[in-house]
Amino acid sequence: MQCRLCGGVAVSFTTRDAEYDECVDCGYIGIEHGRIPEPSAEEARYRLHRNSFDDPVYRAWIDQYLDVAAPYIAPGGSVLDFGSGPEPVPARMMSERGFRMCIHDPFFAPGDSWRSREWDAILVHEVAEHLSLPGEIMAMLAGLLVPGGALCIRTRFPPADRKAFDRWAYRMDSTHVGFFPERCLGLLAARLGLEPALLESPDRAVLLKPRGHGMAFKQGKEPDILKR
Ligand SMILES: [Zn+2]
Q: What structural domains does the chain harbor?
């Protein structure tokens, strides 16, 4: 099998109820292709999510992530909440923190205008595990960051032990189709030309786009505009 994240070779293993492919190169664990839900089934499942802005427990859980990720984003910066879901609570909470938020969701906030501009940060909060084409999507998102921009990912790192993985509650959600070990996110950053500024169990990552980019910087020459 081919890894859906990096294109490397993936080797199958079975759990009690499904088959997964683990990438030999990057460690990404993807569910067997036939278990990826159809978009209509996926949307129906998301509509069952009850994530309310008024639920203090849910808000506290989001704050846990925003507290560590927000310092990597320019104050007042423009942030895309990618895969914002039926209730864009993280976007509202980021807005309260002074960021200029836009949301996108293929089911609940469709549209393409977000693709034609660059962002100070892109929030991928509990979304990466739902992606059927994670390699393609992550590369596209990385391409939309300004230099210094942050790709802020929250997704639960899978247990390395096979028995623990078998009974791992996070994989029981039928829309969770792929999992990123910590090492996998580090390698993903390298492949996308990003720097892993934060990689922290159980579920936190911030990948930064370097500020200096392009051949002029790499060769130690200043771009003409800086010489004046
Ligand atoms: Zn891979």
A: 10-227 (3.40.50.150)
